[in-house]
Amino acid sequence: SPTPPHASPHLPISLQDSVYISSFLDAAPLQAMLLDERLRRLLCMRSRVKEVSEASSMCEAVRSLAGAERMSSGGEGMVVFDVCSGKGLGATLLSFLLPRGRVVMLDSNGGMDLSHLRARPNLSFRHVDLFSADTPAVLREEAAGASYVVAVGMHLCGALSPRLIDLAVAGGTIDAMALCPCCLKGAHGKAVARSAAERSVEPYAVLVETLQAICEREIETAAAGGGARSRVGVWTDREMLSPKNRYITVQKWAADKAAPDVALCQACA
């Protein structure tokens, strides 16, 4: 399809690289973003092709976790936390995907230009240090009255990934998590690099295994304390234009309920 007026000239070159780019060029959110200067600024970054693919991947992850019934209602009753959101291109696309839900950006940088939030009534921002003792209370406050809460973290670095896992599994606020990690640092990072070298595998594969194991340990601890039932999933999104394209997901459900179905997109397995 032809490139919409004012769309980035760098987007079409990747039409054959990812279905996310071609889908974005044909989708209603792009038209709305091009018509509003506040939203259009989100497409001015140099890495916009990669950013669009990552934001679209986030949407697919949330869609899969939410399930068909919630998606058919426009996400009514849902709250999605975009953890370490930055300016929030992913959160903005989520606000279009879930017009009857709410999307909350969480980030430690409170000095960003977030004027585009005024263009999306179901999108908001909280200035949060993820490691603060107050963070669980912030999550509870923002999720008050929600019927389903999802936390998504795209390319979290260092200790942010284990912290999100802890908040998602041990806390009572989040029902599902989708984490696409970037790296681990410090002692954990060195252990990952050493294990990868010993096994002659990519460090990223070991990183994902390590975070999966952390999830499983957290779930066992929560279950021993009478917490909700949970399961861990790992899948790869081959349409994301990044070599770091694996998700660790957690889904929780009440003991008297059946485990929820997960419908992965065709790009994911």
Explain what you see.
The protein is 41% helix and 18% strand. It has 269 residues and is an alpha/beta fold. Strands 3-2-1-4-5-7-6 form a seven-stranded mixed beta sheet, with helices on both faces. β1, α6 and β2 form a beta-alpha-beta unit. α4 (48-66) crosses α6 (89-97) and α8 runs parallel beside α10 (203-224). The radius of gyration is 18 Å and the shape is globular.
Outline the biggest β-sheet.
7 strands, mixed
Mean pLDDT: 90
Distance between the termini: 28 Å
- The level of helicity is 40-55%
Strand order of the largest sheet: 3-2-1-4-5-7-6
Give the uncertain stretches in residue-range form.
Answer: 1-6
- Annotation, overall tally of beta strands: 7
Radius of gyration: 18 Å
SSE sequence, one letter per element: HHHHHEHEEHEHEHHEE
Sheet-strand content, in percent, reads 15-25%
Q: Given the structure, what is the number of helices?
A: 10
Shape: globular
| Structural class category | alpha/beta
Task: Please specify the SSE layout and strand pairing.
Layout: H1 19-26, H2 28-35, H3 37-40, H4 48-66, H5 68-72, E1 78-83, H6 89-97, E2 102-107, E3 123-127, H7 135-143, E4 148-156, H8 160-170, E5 176-181, H9 186-199, H10 203-224, E6 229-236, E7 246-253
Parallel strand pairs: 1-2, 1-4, 2-3, 4-5
Antiparallel strand pairs: 5-7, 6-7
Helix pairs in contact: 4-6, 8-10, 9-10
